[in-house]
Amino acid sequence: MSDKISESDILYMRKALDIAKTHTEQGEVPVGAIIVKDSEIIAYGTNHRENQKNCLCHAEIEAIHKACEKLGGWRLWQCTMYVTLEPCPMCAGAIINARIPRVVFGAYDKKNGSCGSVVNLFELSYNHKPDYIGGVLEEESAYILKDFFKKLRKGEIKQFGAFH
Question: Which of 28, 60, 62, 86 is catalytic?
Answer without folding.
Answer: 60
